[in-house]
From TrEMBL:
Protein name in the entry: CAAX prenyl protease 2/Lysostaphin resistance protein A-like domain-containing protein
The keyword Disulfide bond belongs to this UniProt entry's keyword annotation: no
Lineage: Archaea, Methanobacteriati, Methanobacteriota, Stenosarchaea group, Halobacteria
Residues in CAAX prenyl protease 2/Lysostaphin resistance protein A-like domain copies: 129-229
Swiss-Prot/TrEMBL GO biological process terms: CAAX-box protein maturation
């Protein structure tokens, strides 16, 4: 391939990425993750977290690729997204909401079964900080570089915050499809529709946190890490989940949607936040006329 052909192809790719950033990101995330998951899951009779770990980085890798293709500054994007000087209350929100939701899920289990494994809860609570740390940076937390770091601000250039949240929630759920199809522990045997309902609720909460902190990706990562880790606390409330007579995902979704519904009623669908303008729909300018920092905001 000649230099002229390579330049033409690069220009076409950038044009597509600039014109359709959200679809491009979603296509990349699904392609990378499914491309890593499916071959492994087809050859493993019993997949573990280690088997699915590489594919979990699909959204983060897709975000970086999209930024690179669009000519945006990855360094500026990371610097702005990882600004640590935000109000203490937002750290408390990111750390506290998952614990409250997980505990509420456990409370539903106890109320419906009459079983409360207090000793089991006492054993798992001290391990929660370690689980939170690992999941935030190695597990699901790093997905937020893509879902909230790129997809959310991109969609909010064209849609209100609630619509953007629902779109991300749907894609986020579908992204997990191979894990349901191949019966990966934690996903196999459960309802993808219920999972999607849960994830859309969480997506609304994530949007509220992201918009309220002027696009802080790090806090979204902490919240995501807590969401995954806190489900273990909820499950520990009963001796064995097999005694629970309601779907686990429904029990987790109930408190999450109480929070999500409250946020919608309180702040409205446009921004889902009282303090941010990130949710307002604006016309995206030509990337060639933007500075790296401005381009990052448009993403």
């Amino acid at each position: 391939m000649t230099t002229r052909q390579e330049t033409a192809r690069s220009t076409r790719l950038r044009t597509i990425a600039n014109r359709y950033p959200a679809p491009t990101f979603f296509a990349l995330a699904l392609s990378i993750s499914w491309g890593l998951w499916i071959p492994v899951l087809m050859t493993q009779s019993s997949a573990t977290n280690l088997h699915i770990l590489p594919g979990g980085f699909g959204p983060a890798l897709a975000a970086i690729v999209l930024l690179w293709v669009r000519g945006s500054s990855i360094r500026a994007w990371l610097r702005e997204g990882f600004e640590w000087r935000v109000g203490t209350r937002w750290y408390l929100v990111a750390l506290g909401v998952p614990v409250l939701a997980g505990s509420a899920m456990g409370g539903i289990f106890v109320a419906t079964t009459g079983d409360f494994a207090a000793a089991q809860v006492a054993r798992i609570v001290p391990t929660y900080p370690v689980a939170l740390l690992l999941v935030t940076f190695v597990g699901g937390g790093q997905e937020e570089l893509g879902w909230r770091g790129v997809a959310l601000p991109t969609l909010q250039e064209r849609f209100d915050a609630l619509t953007a949240s629902v779109v991300i929630g749907v894609v986020w759920a579908v992204w997990h499809l191979p894990l349901f199809v191949f019966d990966v522990p934690g996903y196999g045997g459960r309802s993808l529709l219920l999972y999607g309902f849960l994830v859309i609720g969480f997506s609304i909460v994530f949007t509220w946190l992201y918009n309220s902190t002027d696009g802080n990706i790090f806090l979204a990562m902490v919240l995501h890490g807590g969401v995954n880790a806190a489900s273990g606390i909820g499950g520990a409330f009963v001796t064995d989940l097999s005694v629970v007579n309601i779907p686990v995902l429904a029990a987790y979704a109930a408190p999450v949607w109480v929070v999500a519904g409250t946020l919608i009623l309180r702040y409205g669908r446009e921004t889902l936040s009282a303090d941010s303008t990130l949710g307002e729909c604006t016309n995206e300018a030509d990337d060639s006329e933007q500075s790296p920092s401005t381009t990052q905001k448009a993403l």
